[in-house]
Design a protein that fits this description.
Elements: H1 16-41, H2 46-70, H3 74-96
């Protein structure tokens, strides 16, 4: 019998394997795309264009990794990663073209 305090039990973060599969390579590719784009379009000096992305990469990776693991819906993770990769990929292509 279920009391009023207890609801149906379900895991806190469902689809653990899918989340982990999105978290590791997805966060890595998205962080690489953001740092590569940042070095092209950021309005800074030449040294800062190299230094700032190198410094920000670990923070971006960790932030995206934890976002992938803790987001309420797995679909949002895929959508955010796809938008980051495609958006910065377009900025990179525009910077080279």
């Amino acid at each position: 019998m279920v009391t009023a305090d207890q609801g149906p039990t379900r895991p806190l973060f469902p689809r653990r394997r899918l989340r982990l599969a999105l978290a590791v390579p997805g966060a890595l590719v998205a962080a690489l795309a953001v740092t590569a784009g940042l070095s092209l379009y950021a309005p800074m000096g030449q040294v800062d264009r190299i230094l700032l992305p190198v410094i920000l990469f670990p923070f971006l990776f960790v932030g995206l990794f934890f976002f992938a693991l803790m987001a309420p819906r797995v679909r949002w993770v895929g959508l955010v990663f796809a938008l980051l990769i495609l958006g910065h990929g377009a900025l990179i292509a525009r910077g080279f073209g």
